[in-house]
Design brief:
With 365 residues, this protein is α+β, with helices and mostly antiparallel strands. It contains eleven helices and seven strands. The protein has two domains: 295 residues, CorA soluble domain-like (Beta Polymerase, domain 2), CATH 3.30.460.20; 57 residues, Methane Monooxygenase Hydroxylase, Chain G, domain 1.
Length: 365
């Protein structure tokens, strides 16, 4: 039953196998990308300080302008990217146009920049699609400025920041009592921690596939291996560059980062190194699984060839005896004997039986 189930999944994956390959390897950042038109973005604003808190959802773009230099810490989260809103917000907060281009781009490598007293980082949030067994990415841009953090993310319907929103609503939480640089750290830490959840899902798929290969090793295993190897590419492509991104925060001398916050970024750096090593381990496991699959296929082929060789050897005496007594000679021993036929048949049975006993005794099968 398990084998049939995996075959069905493999057939489903093969339907978009070629499309998945194009998504992975046909990315050219120098070619201008035209974003699809999306509905009005979802804007969620948190304005807070140790003794102040306000939350505003779905405000107009103009309503965000009042949060600049208002004496509080502000987190503006924009879900769903449209060029008009991005440029309007960035122009008001004096964001460099190169950063605006990166926000509007697609397929960028995770990175961190510092321009005009603004720290900017771009990376991807990862999600695991249980139905298709694929790793889905969502680009997010985080801007850290004086007393504010602005996030631009592709999808307005999902993210991994609900726990941070709950902490901001608690007056005594460390997030509420800290500066925006700590919020920036918390955002990065939450994204990196979510990588482990995705890797855990992939790890379960690898374990199930390994068990299937060992127990069944059917033809549906190879497509599953190839599909999982592609997801390993997605994982590694998005996880490994984040090390340099976090290093940029650790090494930065910007006044936007307090010295005490550096140790928190070092903690994120430790987590991302571990995640990177784990992605390498998964990649090695997939290579080993492919080798295991090929070894099992070769082993089965050897078993088939061994059975065929034994059958051929067992039939050889009958073939020889039949060939001798089938020759056109007048004088052949026992040719005209009334028991000649039975003697020949007896030899045809006894000799292969003795050979079978000898093969078994020597452990040839």
């Amino acid at each position: 039953m398990a084998s049939k189930k995996h075959k069905k999944i493999a057939k489903t994956k093969d339907g978009h196998n070629l499309t998945r390959t194009r998504e992975l390897f046909h990315v050219n950042p120098v070619v201008p990308f035209q974003r699809e038109s999306v509905p009005a973005p979802h804007i969620h604003v948190f304005d807070y300080s140790p003794d102040h808190f306000s939350e505003l959802e779905h405000p107009a773009i103009d309503a965000c302008f009042s949060y600049k230099d208002n004496g509080h810490n502000t987190w503006i989260n924009v879900g769903g990217i449209r060029k008009e809103e991005v440029e309007t917000i960035c122009n008001h907060f004096n964001i460099h146009y190169l950063i605006v281009e990166d926000i509007l781009s697609v397929g960028q490598r995770p990175k961190m920049d510092e321009m005009d007293n603004v720290l900017y980082c771009l990376l991807n949030m990862l999600y695991f699609n249980e139905e298709t067994g694929t790793v889905e990415t969502e680009q997010i841009s985080i801007l850290l400025g004086k007393d504010y953090v602005i996030c631009f993310q592709d999808d307005a319907e999902r993210d991994v920041f609900d726990n941070l929103r709950e902490k901001l609503r608690v007056p005594t939480s460390k997030l509420r009592q800290s500066k925006p640089d700590y919020l920036c750290y918390a955002l990065l830490d939450t994204i990196v921690d979510n990588y482990y959840e995705v890797m855990e899902k992939l790890g379960e798929r690898i374990e199930n596939l390994e068990e299937e290969i060992i127990r069944f090793s059917n033809t549906g295993s190879l497509p599953d291996i190839n599909n999982l190897r592609k997801e390993m590419i997605v994982l590694k492509r998005n996880v490994v560059p984040v090390r340099d991104l976090v290093n940029g925060f650790i090494r930065s001398d910007s006044d936007l980062l307090e010295e005490r916050t550096t140790k928190y970024f070092k903690d994120v750096h430790d987590h991302i190194i571990q995640a990177s090593d784990l992605s390498e381990n998964y990649r090695d496991m997939m290579i080993n699984l492919q080798d295991l699959y090929l070894s099992n296929v070769n082993l089965k082929m050897n078993e088939v060839m061994k059975v065929m060789a034994i059958v051929t050897c067992l039939l050889a005496p009958a073939t020889v005896i039949g060939g001798i007594f089938g020759m056109n000679f007048d004088r052949i021993p026992t040719l005209h004997n009334q028991y000649g036929f039975f003697l020949a048949v007896s030899f045809m049975i006894l000799i292969p039986a003795f050979m079978l006993y000898t093969f078994k005794k020597r452990g040839w099968f």
